[in-house]
Amino acid sequence: MIIKSKSIKSSKNLSNVLRYILVSHDITDKGFVMNRFISGDRKYHKELIASKGDVELETSVLEARIANMNTQYIANNKKRLVPHSKANVAYHEIISFHASDSKNLLKEDLQKLARVYAKERSPNSLVVASMHRNKEHLHIHIIVSAVELDGKVKRLSKNQFREVKQTLERYQDKHLKLEHSKVNHSKKKNRPY
Q: What is the Cα–Cα distance from 19 to 170, expressed in whole angstroms?
């Protein structure tokens, strides 16, 4: 499993990332969208399922869902205790699995893994996660708010991020038993200089 993190600096960028992860996810029983601390999202999920087949209605519901999530991330960001003009609004994080292991992963396992990751990464932040199958390997997109619900900034140092990766690696070993998705997140790169 490989975990990457990218910062999101603006409301527009956040909206685009939300759109990307929500438009590309599998709305059938094979996929999921998980969120934490996002109010009103169940309504949009039900409307999306009901609108399946009606492209215009589905697009309208999806855009309303994205606007609802974006508004909540931005409102949460305004709680920031120490304002900063170039601060991150959120983080876009991706958990990828090797193609050979992807066929053995169940939606329920990945949804649980997303919840474990969100809890380990930032237990008091807004989170939206979605599973994608649009490549030969499964991957989960996660958007974590940069500010916790209490207004504290939630930035991880490289060491803290490595610890989260190692925790997820242990979870993967214990619960998923994947053969090809093992990555030693703690090893130092050998440099020729």
A: 31
Residue 45 and residue 36: Cα distance in Å, rounded?
A: 14
Q: Let me know if 144 is exposed, middle or buried by CB neighbors in 10 A (0-12, 13-18, 19+).
A: buried
Instruction: Tally Cβ neighbours within 10 Å of residue 189.
Output: 4
Please determine, for residue 136, whether its predicted confidence score (pLDDT) is greater than 90: no
Average pLDDT over residues 39-67: 92
- State the Cα–Cα distance between residues 77 and 83, nearest whole angstrom: 9
Tell me how many domains the chain contains. 1
Tell me whether residue 109 is in a domain.
yes
> Is 152 a residue whose pLDDT tops 80?
yes
Which 3 state secondary structure label does DSSP give 65? helix
In a domain, 192, yes or no: no
- Residue 66 corresponds to which tokens in the numbers above? 């994205």
Q: Which domain, by its residues, includes 141?
A: 2-176
In whole angstroms, give the CA distance from residue 168 to residue 59. 34
Mean pLDDT across 114-135: 92
